[in-house]
Amino acid sequence: MATEQLTAKRPAPALTGSVLNIALRLAALALIDAVTIWFVGELLGQEEYILTGFVTVITLGLNAIFLIDGLYPYRWFSPGLALLVLVVIYPTVFTIYIAFTNYRDGNLLTRAQAEQVLLSRTYLPPDAPTYRWTAFRSEDGSRYALWLVPEGEGEPLFAEEGKVTPLSALNLGEYALDEDNVPTTLPGWVRLKKAETFKLLDSVLSKTQFGNPQRVIMLNPKNPVKQAGEFQPQYTLQADGSLLDNETGVLYQPIDGTYTPVDGPYKDAEGRVTDADGNPLPVIRPGYYVTIGLGNFKRLLTNEKIREPFVRVFIWTFAHAFFTVFLTFWLGLGLALLLNVPFTPGRAVLRTALLVPYAIPAFISVLVWRGLLNEQLGVINKTLINVFGLEHGPRWTSSPTWVKIAILLIQLWLGFPYMMLITTGALQAIPSDIYEAAKVDGAGAFQRFRFLTLPLLLVSVGPLLIASFAFNFNNFTIVELFNKGGPPISPDNPAGHSDILITYTYELAFGSGRGADYGFAATISIVIFVIVAIITYFNFRFTQGWEEVSENV
Amino acid sequence: MFSLRALWQNKMVRDRWLGYLARLMLIFLALFFAFFPILWIASASLNETGTLNTQKLIPRNFGLGNYDRLLHNDLHPFPLWMWNSIKVSSITAVLSVMISALGAYAFSRFRFRGRRGLMLTIFLVQVFPNSLTIVGTFLLIQTIGRHIPWLGLNAHGGLILAYLGGALGINTWLMKGFFDSVPRELDESARIDGASDWLIFWRIIFPLVRPVLAVVGILTFIGTYGDVIISLTLLKDKNVQTLAIGLNRFISDNFNQEWGVFAAGALIGAIPIVILILTFQRFFVSGLTEGAVKG
At CA A297, angle to CA A294 and CA A299, rounded to 5? Predict the structure, then answer.
């Protein structure tokens, strides 16, 4: 075979060739490396360790491939492999990883990020120094500052962002203070008029932290027009990682990454921490994500409110895929048989015409059917009501049963042409002389179909049926666009009566209304992953496809 | 001699005619099932005053007003959606074919360590649809976008990046088959003339397999055009959305009143794909479609 000759051929060494060639290659590599170094720096700043690892490995790999002679053939794969690792392998690994974490709204940060956010929060203690304030703007218009006159004892201050200067340290000299103890001008700064100040009050001044970390000065949210105050950090980090609320004295302990009140001055009869009025205190957000082991899987199997809808979704996912293949196969086969009779006029035209539903993009067909099946206004229900005198037509989108029938109807419409196409091909491949032999033996038409056509057909079409099953198992487009998986099973769960696993996953992660629960969505993804792996395995067993694949290598 | 009655009394002839009529009936039913929604939509698009509620099969106010409103609608920028879809799908198809062809050439012409492992890996990876890792993909594109906005969420660069992850997939396998069928004597003679691997690929093999690559590209185009889950996840702003997401938004916003305009959009959006598929239908029977059209 040609293989042997090719093995003998030595690939062109990497670092030979024209000087221009080498220069271009090295320049391209240098560019990629520079971008990677910058990007890795950015990622590390956000503690994206797993992605950092992947990006580093990809870049090192590219360097190796283009610098080591022995890896020459891999150059041809480099763009594809880099994309495969970044956009397929990394999301897979990360999806599996977050399935074992509580990565969801409220717990989206790393611990350091969450601590940073919470420790920068401040409050105004009742006994804190308060000031009358006047706003200044820097001459270039980019920064703001406050001139503060104490309401109690003390000297006036000038507070910029990150810096506090008392009057005595300012060399004001000839700049006199007016009757309110406010300087009319300051070098580099422009005193704002009342009207300007009001304009900026909500958008800028109320949101800015003036002063330095030791003396955080902000407008008093209860009286922002008149008063500024010296704020204190809301929380103090304890040695064990919990946060003490300096205002209320409540201790918040991170439990699975969520800061939960565990101790405080007020408690109710059940031992819960409450505020002074006896209302239980909520947890504080944001929390951080932690690995919770099999927590998501346990929730799926043991929490009644989650398990019951999940089991329904699980069963419907299989039923939906099975009935879709079943119905489309039989209708497609029936039409293929009808059109397979010789001397049918217009056979070719009819075959092409019946392909049209398959040729229309599925997302368009589903939306069209959504109109036709509209419960009040759609043509189908209006016709049914007129013809049969019904009070109302089938509730295609709000009844748990009818929505499933509607989806199968749409699937049938979308899918029968494909089945007709493949069964037509398979029928034509069956030699006709075996039918002659069967006729001679006295087999009737039904027997010939049942014992000759069908088994022979299934041998050739079987793998395609399984592939179709696997495809419809994850047919997001149909289910999501028809009714978003609805109607809902219960008000406190995102699962709906027509949801399949993949739309349920989507709803958990990206559905509106409820917070995103990426960790739990990833858990459902893993369930689908395992099922698809099993289906594929059996498909290969069934068809000996693996041997075929291996031979083709 | 000839009489219908005599023919009718001939059992064989009668059975054949009855059978033919019965088949005709069934075929007619199938045609009705297949074409009813299409005719209904076509009629709705031409009915200037109809809502979903009042539509009749024969348009009462025939005209192209719906098409006009479709093309001039700031709230639902249909031409922009269509353009976005065509742009994203074309770029994805071209890049994906190039990436795949490079790999296929190497698989076909080189023997190297790890070749078998790489082929099996690519085969195994593409078994799992990319919708399974949608959570991971979303978070990846979100993270990238924080630093490189044009590869992030709400950007076509990010969407194309997500699509290209599977470029080195089943298509590479298919193309390798075609590359194998190009006689190696061609390469050898070119090599004797001093051509490099790249020159052999680009000047000799590529032109020979171009028709096949075009078909693979068209199939990739169709598959990308029809994607819902990834574009729905990554694109939130209506001005960057693709047709699939835009039409869905359209119909959810104002279903009844805009039914005629929606119908016009559905037809315009479907026609290019219908023509492509009916033209290339023979490729859909073979395994070609399985990888190419996968969502």
Answer: 110
Residue A553: pLDDT above 60? no
Query: Mean of the pLDDT values across residues A286-304?
Result: 91
Cβ-Cβ contacts under 8 Å, A43 against chain B: 143, 147
Residue A345: what residue type?
P
> How far, in Å, CA of A44 to CA of A485, rounded?
39
pLDDT at A142: 83
Q: Which residues of A touch B109 (CB under 8 A)?
A: 6
Distance from CA of B55 to the nearest CA of A (A): 8
Same domain, B191 and B259: yes
Q: Is A444 on the interface with B (CB under 8 A)?
A: no
ipTM confidence: 0.89
- pLDDT tens per residue, range B52-78: 666 677 777 788 888 988 888 878 899
B139/A518 CB distance under 8 A: yes
Question: How many domains, in total, are found in chain B?
Answer: 2
CB atoms within 10 A of CB A105: 12
Q: Which chain A residues touch B52 with a CB distance below 8 Å?
A: 371, 374, 377-378
Please give the average per-residue pLDDT across B42-47, as a whole number. 89
Annotate A411-443 with DSSP letters as a single string.
HHHHHHHHHHHHHHHHHHHS-THHHHHHHHTT-
Model confidence at A81: pLDDT above 80: yes
> Are the beta carbons of A50 and A82 closer than 8 angstroms?
no
Residues 298-337 of A with CB under 8 A from B: 331, 334-335
Q: Are residues B118 and B205 in the same domain?
A: yes
Give the least confident one: A275-284, A515-524, B149-158: A275-284
Domain of residue A513, residue span: 302-552
Report the distance separating Cα A196 and Cα A193, nearest Å: 5
- pLDDT band of residue A491 (cuts 50, 70, 90) is confident
A75 and A192 fall within a common domain: no
Give the amino acid at B163.
Y
Q: In this structure, is residue A540 part of a structural domain? A: yes
Instruction: Considering only the C-alpha atoms of chain B, give the largest distance between any 2 of them, rounded to a whole number of Å.
Output: 91
The predicted structure's pLDDT at residue A518:
93
pLDDT for position A199:
84
Is A116 inside any structural domain? no
Instruction: Report the pLDDT averaged over residues A269-288.
Output: 87
Q: Which residue of B has its CA nearest to A104?
A: B135
Residue A283 near residue A259 (C-beta atoms within 8 A): yes
Last residue of a domain, one of B50, B69, B88: B69
One domain, residues B80 and B99: yes
Contacts of B119 in chain A (CB under 8 A): 553
pLDDT at A481 over 90: yes
Size of interface A-B (CB pairs under 8 A): 266
| Other C-beta atoms lying within 10 Å of the C-beta of residue A508 | 25
CATH number at residue B254: 1.10.3720.10
Give the Cα separation of B191 and A432 in Å (integer).
50
Domain that residue B11 falls in: 4-69
Same domain, yes or no, for A498 and A373? yes
Q: Which of A1-15, A24-38, A248-262 has the lowest mean pLDDT?
A: A1-15
Please report residues of A whose CB lies closer than 8 A to that of B116. Answer: 553
The answer to whether residue B249 neighbours chain A at the CB level (below 8 Å) is: no
The CA angle B212-B217-B218, to the nearest 5 degrees, is: 100
What is the tally of structural domains in chain A? 3
Would the pLDDT of B284 be above 70?
A: no
- Both A324 and A411 in a single domain? yes
Q: What is the mean pLDDT of residues B205-228?
A: 90
Which of B40, B69, B98 is the last residue before a domain boundary? B69
Shared domain for B51 and B163, answered yes or no, is no
A264 lies in some domain: no
Chain A contact present for B80, CB below 8 A: no
Q: Provide the pLDDT for residue B79.
A: 93
What distance in Å separates the CA atoms of residue A348 and residue A334, rounded to the nearest whole number? Answer: 16
- Minimal Cα–Cα distance from A418 to chain B, Å? 8
B residues 164-203 closer than 8 Å to A (CB): 164-168, 172-173, 177, 184, 196-197
Mean pLDDT of chain A: 87
